[in-house]
């Protein structure tokens, strides 16, 4: 059975392993340690950015990162920024449980929706996303600074 919970101080190694694996999926292999240190500090402060982990049989197998932000045309919304589950744990409900936990946290913060992005080629994840959410048809553009 999958349990979703907030980070514990002793989760650092498992969390960082999963976050590095997530970034590697997007060909980001050489991120500086400072990126992970900053993210960990933000997630453990739990003020601006939030993190949850999925645990199966006492082993951390997945993570989700999210933040709540203002909207110009509605009450606050929740952005699910990162979602990752170990390859060997996929297909057993961890990602679905993490998404549901973010939705619960967003409701508790009076958000009107949770949204996230994925690549069109992420077909395995999109099968789940199509079951739990609505594809609103938007394209993402980025302007590097």
Automatic annotation (TrEMBL):
UniProt keyword list: Acyltransferase, Ribonucleoprotein, Ribosomal protein, Transferase
PANTHER family: AMINOALKYLPHOSPHONATE N-ACETYLTRANSFERASE-RELATED-RELATED
Residues in N-acetyltransferase domain copies: 2-145
Keyword Transcription: no
Keyword Transferase recorded: yes
UniProt name for this protein: Ribosomal protein S18 acetylase RimI
Gene3D superfamilies associated with the record: 3.40.630.30
Pfam families reported for this sequence: Acetyltransf_1 (PF00583)
One of the record's GO molecular function terms: acyltransferase activity, transferring groups other than amino-acyl groups
Taxonomic superkingdom: Bacteria
Entry-linked PROSITE patterns: GNAT
GO cellular component term of the entry, any: ribosome
């Amino acid at each position: 059975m999958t349990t979703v919970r907030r980070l514990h101080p002793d989760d650092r190694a498992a969390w960082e392993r999963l976050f590095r694996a997530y970034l590697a999926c997007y060909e980001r292999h050489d991120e500086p340690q400072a990126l992970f240190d900053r993210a960990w500090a933000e997630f453990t402060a739990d003020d601006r950015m939030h993190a949850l982990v999925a645990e199966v049989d006492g082993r951390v197998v997945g993570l989700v990162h999210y933040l709540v932000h203002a909207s110009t045309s509605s009450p606050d919304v929740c952005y699910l920024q990162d979602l990752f589950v170990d390859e060997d744990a996929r297909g057993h409900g961890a990602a679905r449980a993490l998404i549901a936990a973010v939705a619960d946290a967003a409701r508790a913060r009076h958000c009107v929706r949770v949204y996230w992005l994925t690549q069109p080629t992420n077909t395995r994840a999109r099968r789940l996303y199509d079951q739990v959410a609505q594809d609103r048809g938007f394209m993402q553009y980025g302007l590097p600074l």
